[in-house]
Amino acid sequence: MIGKKIGDTSISQNKTFVGCGQSLPHHEIIIVDINTKKIMDDGSINEIWCKGLSVAQGYWGNKEATKETFEAFTADRQGPFLRTGDLGFMKDGELYIVGRLKDMIIIRGRNYAPQDIEYVVQDSHIAIRKGRLVAFSYQKNNIENLGVVIEVKQSLLKDTYNDIVLAILEAVTREIGLSVSYIVMLE
Question: Given this model, what pLDDT does residue 109 score?
Fold first, then answer.
């Protein structure tokens, strides 16, 4: 999944995911390509759509938002479905959630989950504190760039600044296929 375009990805054999269960009776959960509206194959990551007796009918007094979110149809006219905005996949009838559509980092037209980038960064050097970082995109000269802000163990920062930067650059390039343009280190 790391660094792959949504819709073109299948689940990596070397990642562990926790299942969220199966659809209830009289309910349906499907994974739909956000661009083509086609239903995805088992194991492919994209937007989670659902319908059923417990799904709300829409937003109060907001017909436009209701149509966009609660009245979605697949390319073959199945529906209406609720577009959850969540990213996930189905495997053997089990739903797995992997992120949020709005959280995606988009660089050169490709979608990246920030948590995938953060996972690679935090494991790139021993001085980086686990879970104390954020990956984000920003524009410079109308070009999307990748930045990271990390918290570093104070005892390891002084003599290892360049080593940390190089480790991040190498790991993200190798694992994700992106260049990091901006790195901020915090104690």
Answer: 80
Among the listed residues 176, 173, 172, 9, the one whose alpha carbon sits nearest the alpha carbon of residue 87: 9
- pLDDT tens digits along 73-111: 999 999 999 999 998 999 999 999 888 887 788 888 888
Q: Say if residues 66 and 89 touch (Cβ distance below 8 Å).
A: no
Beta-carbon contacts of residue 143 (< 8 Å; ≥ 6 apart): none
Q: Average pLDDT for residues 134-139, to the nearest whole number? A: 91
The region that residue 7 occupies, defined by phi over 0 for left and psi between -120 and 50 for alpha, beta otherwise, is left
Q: What is the 3-state secondary structure (H, E, C) of the chain?
A: CCCCCCCCCECCCCCCCCCCCCCCCCEEEEEECCCCCCECCCCECEEEEEEECCCCCCCCCCHHHHHHHHCECCCCCCCCEEEEEEEEEEECCEEEEEEEHHHCEEECCEEECHHHHHHHHHCCCCCEEEEEEEEEEEEECCEEEEEEEEEECHHHHHHHHHHHHHHHHHHHHHHCCCCEEEEEEEC
Which pLDDT does position 2 carry in this prediction? 28
pLDDT above 70 as % of the chain: 90
